[in-house]
Amino acid sequence: MGKMKIISLEGKKSIDVQTTIVRNAKTQSYAVRRACRILAVESIKAYFDSDGSVMLAQAIEIQTPVSLCIGVESKFKLFCFVPIMRSGLLPWASQLQYVDDTYGDIVLDLGDVIFVEDIKEGVIKVPSGFAGAERHEDNPTVQKFDYYKPPKDVKGRIVLIPESVLATAGSAAKVIRALRNAGALAVVLLCAIAAQEGLDTLDKEFDDFVTVVTCAIDPELTEEKFIKPGLGDYGNRVFGSKNDEECEKHQYDQQQEVKRLEKLLEGKEDVADPQDARRFGVTAGPGGIV
Hints:
single chain; five-stranded parallel beta sheet; three-stranded mixed beta sheet; 2 domains; Rossmann fold; alpha/beta
């Protein structure tokens, strides 16, 4: 066994711009999603570019009606997706679309002859399964693995695992073990940000069975096992979700703000806030909007 392969895109200007957007706590959910989609596609592109053998041309001897001759047959690596829910769903959708759009026809140039190969039975036919693994909120060092439905034909395939971040690697490790037991050829974990601790954990257990593609590598984890500086709770930031109490409070606050603005517009309330004054193009002070 060899050392785990790590492909880091950190340092590329276009990547660093997007990771900065994702990290920024002030970035709204729609902008986080857009940046994450870009990072997801760049990650899978980087893997295919680094592999260099998505499609192989193999010389074979065949019998024509007249004589023996040397021909060429295409050999394709077989892939499947197993995103980790819920944070892996957005990158999975982006990466699957990229594969569909990019690997429909591949031109195979063999000197004087050019073949156009339709590889719908190869790379483009990438089945998807799903895994549900997450850490316990009250004990971040313990992971739940409560849903696992891989494609039927995992055996002999390279499994692409779209993920958001790699922190302790506890959840990822549980999924990877299940895939290895199912006969997967190898695993490629595609994530936006990885912690060094998580990388070390995977390397120690899986060696070269796993390749990690990440857009940034952060040095440490907090006591709550969040990546530092990281990007916070990926799922909440991407999907804009909160717990019920926070959601109800947010909705109440928004309703109160709407009522307050309505009173300002009707002139029933003083414009005391300079920000409101700028918003309505008036001078802050008593008397409401005039």
